[in-house]
Amino acid sequence: MSGAFLIVAWHPEDHEARETAARIEASVMRTPNIAIMRTAGLMIAAQGARVERPSPSHFMIGDLFSGSDQAPAPNPGQTDHRGFRDYCSRLLSTHWGSYIILRHNPHAHHFLSVFAEPIGSRECIHWRHGGVTMLGCDAEPWLGQFPPLQLDLDLEEIAHIIHYPSQAAETAPLSGITPLESGGITYFTRSGHETQRLWTPRDHCVEGDRSDDPAALAQIVDKSIAAWSSGLRRPIMELSGGLDSAIVAASLHRAGLNGIDAFTFFSDSLAGDERRFSRAVAEKLGFVPHEIAFKTAAMDPHLIDSAAIGIRPGIGSTTFFHDRPLANIGSARQADALFTGRGGDALFFQHPTPLVAQHIGPGGKRLTLEHVEALARWCQTSVWRVAMATFLPAMFRSVASGSQSRFCRYARPSRPSTWAGSLDGLSAGKRMQIEAIAGDRNAFGPSCCAQAMRVIHPLLSQPIVEYVLGQSLMTLTQGRRDRAMARAAFADRLPPSLIDRRGKGALSYFFGQTLARSTALLRERLLEGALAETGLVDRASLEQALDPANLIQSSCYGEIIRLLIVERWMRGWKEQRAQPRVQAGPLAQDAPSETR
Length: 596
What we know:
alpha+beta; Glutamine Phosphoribosylpyrophosphate, subunit 1, domain 1; Rossmann fold; 3 domains; six-stranded antiparallel beta sheet; 24 helices; 19 strands; 37% helix; disordered C terminus
């Protein structure tokens, strides 16, 4: 995969670790188009990923963008772990991107310190093997040869994914494999590791600290997308017909990327056909539209079996309907990046809820009675319910969300989002927004598209996330409709039919018809597969749901598809573990620092 990296760190005087590191390097060197940077006790291998060395003990992997006026990145100061923390804090205030920063001192107690950027767009996981610490964005190629001591499926974590799919990005369903915490420094010692968070969403929920002018939002989105698009040769984009992908398209156009191939998938139902909107956007911006029909038919087993695996199921990042076809299109066109509009619903606040009324705007003003009426119309609820949320917030309780799956036999309690961190003191609506953003980070998970090209979700950029966190929900919605501020920000650059549109497209009819035609395949995979074998699913409840008549009429399509993704992932790892391990021969000795 382009942009992949592997970090191997060990104590130079540990003989076993040195031999293990030599075997790993021998294996890595057989990988095509690989660049290796090596120093005493450390090896960094990159395949298409940018690697820089701002000081003898500091390394940066990935893309780093200036937050304003192209300011240069700060230089590392003191080389101890406190100096590294100060360096990362200064970097956070001036730069952003998709990167990790590491400090290495093989003789220090904290011999390796790694900071992962706040949003989590660059996956980084770590594990131990043979006395060495290994980190990478994609462990799959290396775990067959260099696994942790007890690599296995963690059924409790898998059950948590089934019950709470929005937290998939924060789970560790493979024992011995641990993801780095985004926005935190992980300090590694020879006996373990600990993490210190430097960035949390709550730090940026300071209302009135940023301009609430829609033009300011447009400027931040434009700058962020211009940064992502710099240096790309042939990007393509997924233009769904919705507002968020249209905003990305408008900013790509502003950045000078004209004539981009834009792909729209549609079904044969009115709700699933948004071509009239995507065509209007493509025509206004000069993009080249391509329309691909979802055909209602039984699911193709090959599309399931060829789905990407990764270190966790690709919930939120892959589908069995358009992921592989879009990846094939990107490969055929030699595209180097795919842009999407993921994240906009949470960031710009799409969800209609009276909780908006609890969230005061700049100056401490609450909604007026006129706004209460408008909010009630948007939420399709009574004025009295909105008024209660507005004037008696302590008496208002929102309907609980995130109920557990009826198909999973393992009961799992909910747990707070580790990315969200402490939300004490925030309004219920702002907490809802932060938790939704945390869930949208699932988009960075494994997919066929990500294997074929770089997948960029530019709305989930640190400057945009920080900006919207500093806006009240009243400002974002104007107390009357979804994503009102974002609509105003791009009203002069997108078709009125899209800006004025109410509602969203839906593929419920397509999913229901497709799953109803696939009951034989669903029963084979879900009632006789790894989920059933490990006792994770309630076969009786699932068998009843898989009746064709129930599938057409019920609303469990999303849950069934997520179970299929988990099933495919579990099967894939079981197959990999069953393969014989290939050992690489050791190199002769440690070599000096070099790049290959």
